[in-house]
Structure formats: C-alpha cells, structure tokens
C-alpha cells in the first residue's frame, strides 16, 4: 500500500511539472493578472485616467454612433458618449446589442475614452445591461435628461426628475455592484435651489461625474432657448470642489468653449447639436478657417469614408441624418440635392456616394465665383459663414431672437466688420448662442446672439 501511494505521488509530481512546463510564461502572467481585479476608479482619479478631457461629444439618440465618434475625435473631441441605449432591450436582446454596440465599439485603438449611456427605470435591468459593456468602456452613464415624448411614455430620462428615490436606487445599484464607474447627466429645474439639491442627491447615490444640461425639461424643439450657465455655476460652486462636473449647452463656436469653462467653473464642456452641425466645433487650438468651419464637401467625404469602412447597423442607420445636418446650410441653397437625399434607403452606399460627388462638384463650381470669407461683426455677436462651410444651427422662434431682436439682414452688416479669407487665420471674438437663424439669398447664415450667462432659462 505504501509502495502504491509513493508511486501515485511520483506520477502526480511529474504531471504537475509537465503542465507547468507547457504553460507559456506570458500566459501564466495573464492568468495571474486576470485573477486580480483592477481597482474601480472614482471621481478625480477616473477623470485623470481619461486624460482630463475638456471637449466631449454628448450622448444623443442614434447620432453619436461609432463613425461619428471617430470623426469627432479627429476634430478635437477628447471624450465621447455613445447614443442613449435602452437598458431593458440591451440586457435582453443579443440582436439589439449587435445593432447598437458592435464589435468595434469601445476598441482601445480608436474609440476610447468612452462612456456608454443607458436610459432605465429598473435597477436590475440597468445592471444587467451595464454588465455587457464592462471592459469595453471607461464608465456607464445614466440618462436623466432626455425630454422627448418617448421618454415620457417609457418613464425614463428627464421624466424621472420627480422620482428621487428611484434615481438613487438606479445609480447606487451600479455604484455598488458594477465593476466600472457610473456617471449621470441631468437637466435643471426652474428653481436653482432645487437644482442644487437634485445634483447633490445624484452625487450621493454614487455618480462619479455629473453633467448638467442648463435647460429645463420643457426646453426642447422650438422652445429650446438658451441654457442657463449661471445655474450650472451655482451648482458647481456649492458641491464639493473635488467633484468632476461637465457643462452642457450653448456651444456653437470654438470661442464658446473657454467662455463656458470660465463662466461655469466646470472641468469640461459637452456639445450635442453644435457638434452635429460642425464636427470641428471642438478645434479650440486651431485658427485656420478650414479647421474651424470646414467645407461641407470635405467634411462629408471624411465622414462618409469612415462610415463606409465600418458598415455596421448603427453607422448605416445614422448616415442620412448626418448628411442632412452637415449639409444643412448648403441644402438650403442646393435644394435639388436635398430632394435626392430624402428617398435614399438605409445602407444604399452607391446612392450616398453620388450625393457626396455632387456636393464636391457644386462646391468646386461655387468657389470659382464666390468669395470664401467669414464676416465677424463688431458689437453684437454673430458670424456670416458661407453656405458651403460647416456652421452652427440657430433656431428660429417666430423670426425673433431670444433677446427680442429680429435677425440681421445682409445689408445691415457693418462695413467695418473684419473679413477673413480662406488663406488666413481667424482671430477669436466672443460668441454665444442665439435662438434665431436664417439663410440669405446667397446662402450666408446670419444671426444675432445674446449672452447665455445673463439670460434666464425662459429667455
């Protein structure tokens, strides 16, 4: 019996030595490292690990997909959020996950840092969904700002603003049980004290970043108006100084970025609509006209080539919308091209290619006879930008700006306004968002703007 035991012991040692000899050292190291969970970064440490981003692509419904994030990063975006994803569907449906967060999403080579945003009203469903993106993003964000009718119907987004207990449970569920950090994006109330209390409540639940959109839930569509930077600043000044906070709203030009940071004291700015109409809005360190207001033909071609190289469902679904937004001022003049885009079906890359080629040809023809200049006014803030260049969108409310003044017409432009040609650089001047927009007969956009720091949410 002793002899048998000794024999078995010898064979056991030999087997162990054989296995260990055949395990590559690097694999063994990886196995050892995998067994040790990485620490979950929080607050300022997470922000530092992301590279201290200053310019952020906002989470948007179906419009901050992978191709758009890649384009935006090329033009100055430091951090990107995914489109808003439905937590229940994401957790339950493999097809929904494939359609909205494909194999290339979150790739460290070209899509990080990245925050994945979910809308939810059930803590367990939110956690189930979030677990699917662990390892493929830097954090998960809870959408508390969507003001659209679909959010009202589904009871999520900004329509959770009155249910503080549920909000706490949603955020805290991820904070205590998810392997990666949770953040949150909120809107403000009409009352700044309630807005501050709301922000503190969200942070107390475990949100590591707080993004504040300086508009109320009712401010959408034609009632969008100006975001109130003063409320954002009030929140910033009355929460712990180590809190990482982002400001969202009123970013139309590159100059607005530093103005917002100075006015609010936040760590970074986030832009949605400003980024959609001009992906170069984040290019704060560049002054050339082509870097700040790229030609639509050049930007459209760059975007299309990215999307075409990654023909996943999300990229193909968003393509038509991005064409319309990049080309918005251009299509107001070249209406025949606008009419051609409308009927194109999702994924018909040949037809989209024809549109890109037509735009390239039209811009080439326009530049033969038109002056490629931007006019910047003295006194009131506005820019006149040629229709063949990417530019912000100013909403019209009965043709009147939020400061009660009507849009300036082309013949009202001050002759002393400085003109910058395509071979020169643009000198910064303060600019802010207005709620008016128009395209003159030659396709040059003009607008009158007001200071968002002074404007109230209802202005």
UniProtKB/TrEMBL annotation:
It catalyses: 5,6-dihydrouridine(16) in tRNA + NADP(+) = uridine(16) in tRNA + NADPH + H(+); a 5,6-dihydrouridine in mRNA + NAD(+) = a uridine in mRNA + NADH + H(+); 5,6-dihydrouridine(16) in tRNA + NAD(+) = uridine(16) in tRNA + NADH + H(+); 5,6-dihydrouridine(17) in tRNA + NAD(+) = uridine(17) in tRNA + NADH + H(+). Its EC number is 1.3.1.88. This is tRNA-dihydrouridine(16/17) synthase [NAD(P)(+)]. PANTHER family: TRNA-DIHYDROURIDINE SYNTHASE, TRNA-DIHYDROURIDINE(16_17) SYNTHASE [NAD(P)(+)]-LIKE. Its cofactor is FMN. InterPro entries: Aldolase_TIM, DUS-like_FMN-bd, tRNA_hU_synthase_CS. One of its GO terms (biological process) is mRNA processing. SUPFAM superfamilies: FMN-linked oxidoreductases. Belongs to the Dus family. Dus1 subfamily. It holds the Pfam family Dus. Keywords: Flavoprotein, FMN, mRNA processing, NAD, NADP, Oxidoreductase, tRNA processing. It is an enzyme of class 1 (oxidoreductase). Residues 424-443 have a biased composition (Polar residues). It comes from the Eukaryota. Residues 57-361 form the DUS-like FMN-binding domain. It comes from Blastobotrys adeninivorans (Yeast). GO terms for molecular function: flavin adenine dinucleotide binding; tRNA dihydrouridine synthase activity. Residues 404-443 are annotated as: Disordered.
């Amino acid at each position: 019996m002793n002899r048998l035991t000794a024999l078995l012991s010898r064979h056991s040692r030999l087997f162990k030595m054989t296995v260990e000899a055949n395990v590559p050292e690097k694999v063994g190291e990886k196995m050892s490292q995998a067994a040790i969970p990485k620490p979950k970064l929080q607050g300022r440490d997470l922000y530092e690990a992301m590279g201290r981003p200053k310019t952020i692509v906002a989470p948007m419904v179906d419009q901050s997909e992978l191709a758009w994030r890649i384009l935006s990063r090329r033009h100055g975006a430091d951090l990107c959020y995914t489109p808003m994803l439905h937590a229940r569907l994401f957790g339950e449906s493999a097809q929904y996950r494939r359609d909205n967060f494909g194999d290339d999403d979150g790739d460290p080579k070209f899509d990080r840092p990245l925050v994945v945003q979910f809308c939810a009203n059930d803590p367990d469903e939110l956690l189930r969904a979030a677990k699917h993106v662990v390892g493929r993003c830097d954090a998960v964000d809870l959408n508390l700002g969507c003001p659209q009718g679909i959010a009202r119907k589904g009871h999520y987004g900004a329509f959770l603003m009155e249910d503080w207990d549920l909000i706490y449970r949603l955020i805290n569920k991820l904070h205590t049980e998810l392997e990666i950090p949770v953040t949150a994006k909120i809107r403000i109330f009409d009352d700044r004290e309630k807005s501050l209390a709301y922000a503190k409540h969200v942070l107390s639940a475990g949100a590591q970043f707080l993004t504040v959109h300086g508009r109320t839930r009712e401010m959408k569509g034609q009632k969008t108006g100006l975001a109130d930077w003063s409320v954002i600043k009030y929140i910033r000044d009355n929460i712990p100084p180590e809190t990482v906070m982002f400001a969202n709203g009123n970013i139309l030009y590159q100059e607005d970025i530093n103005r917002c940071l100075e006015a609010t004291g936040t760590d970074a700015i986030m832009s949605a609509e400003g980024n959609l109409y001009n992906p170069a809005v984040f290019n704060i360190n560049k002054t050339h006209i082509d870097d700040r207001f790229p030609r639509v033909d050049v930007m459209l071609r760059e975007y299309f080539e990215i999307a075409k190289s990654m023909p996943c469902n999300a990229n193909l679904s968003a393509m038509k919308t991005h064409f319309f937004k990049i080309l918005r001022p251009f299509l107001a003049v070249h209406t025949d091209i606008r009419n051609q885009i409308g009927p194109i079906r999702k994924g018909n890359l040949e037809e989209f290619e024809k549109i890109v080629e037509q735009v390239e040809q039209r811009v080439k023809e326009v530049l033969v006879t038109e002056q490629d200049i931007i006019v910047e006014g003295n006194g009131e803030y506005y820019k006149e930008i040629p229709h063949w260049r990417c530019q912000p969108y100013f909403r019209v409310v009965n043709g009147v700006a939020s400061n009660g003044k009507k849009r300036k017409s082309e013949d009202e432009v001050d002759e002393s306004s400085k003109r910058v040609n395509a071979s020169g650089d643009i000198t910064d001047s303060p600019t802010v968002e207005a709620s008016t927009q128009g395209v003159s007969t030659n396709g040059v956009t003009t607008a009158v703007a007001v200071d968002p720091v002074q404007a109230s949410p209802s202005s």
